[in-house]
Amino acid sequence: MTRMTEPADLRADDVTPGTGTALGKGTVKPPRAGLDETLPPADWGARRPVAPGTRAAWGFAALAAVLVAGRLWAAPLIGARALDAWTTIFVAICVQALPFLVFGVALSAAITAFVPASFWNRVLPRRPGAAVPVAGAMGAVLPGCECASVPVAGGLMARGVAPAAALTFLLAAPAVNPIVLVATAVAFPDAPEMVLGRFAASMIVAVLAGWAWLLFGRGEWIRIPSRPPSGTGAAARWEAFRQAMRHDIMHAGGFLIVGGAAAATINVAVPSEWVGGVAGIPWLSVLVLAVLAVLMSICSEADAFVAASLSQFSPTAKLAFLVVGPMVDLKLIALQAGFFGRRFAVRFVPLTFVLAVAVSAIAGGVLL
Questions:
Q1: Is 180 within the bounds of a domain?
Q2: Which positions, given as ranges, span the membrane (predicted)?
Q3: Model pTM score
């Protein structure tokens, strides 16, 4: 019996940067000239991928069917007013987040197609532990929502950036960028310490989460997005940009809809009296507003105005609302699970939430 051997031309340089797999999972490098080009590909039993346009059409058809069914059959059971509130909140979340999601996807595709991997080697320190705070500082100068930070972090990982540094950027960018800080200052005109508290607590949480993932995270827990080689010519790079843009917008848009529907359901189902009844208990009020930030899933550019309206709660509880929301909410959890896998989300989300609540309580006691 003849022993099968691997092709000699599958070398280390055939590995896609940042993925650790040979040109993507289950695929090998095309045969060189002179070899038998009639051989079938390695993944003989793989299904033919569904076109993104077909997948999007089915997704929008299913969404339309759910909304129509809710209007026809659910309204008599839960009340037309509640259904109208659900529809309004759901549409508001999706419309509010979609522009930032498109911006993040476009930025991620541009990073993948036009920014060489050597650029990140020059900008970020070689040691991952030192790259984590630098990535947090990068998030402070890039305006963006939490929906935009997820695809951008995926694009950074695809270009070879250490996952711990990319995750630090993911948490810091929507919480400490200039637009969010200005909005916080406008919402709290008589409390400038709230702006300082939000910046300091959010940055500390982002860096601690990055270091924690660096120390305890495992490679098999996170699915690093893969990108095809962009080529050297301008036409090839624009084609890589187009392919990455189309893939990510179709992929992330579905998870945004799922997260928005979950957030709208929670907003309608949880009575407001339950929230107001715990405002007088200091430690419980911090935890309640932290959970409320997760459930409401408000964009980071607008959450400061909601926090300012919660006058019955303490400043520390409001700070927890502002720190937790941009880092952990329902639509963000859905996006993280879609981009990096469920095994990542079930570990990183609780880590971030615990750090955000603890740091907010400490920062609130010191600064507020």
A1: yes
A2: 56-74, 86-117, 164-189, 195-216, 249-270, 276-298, 319-339, 345-367
A3: 0.65
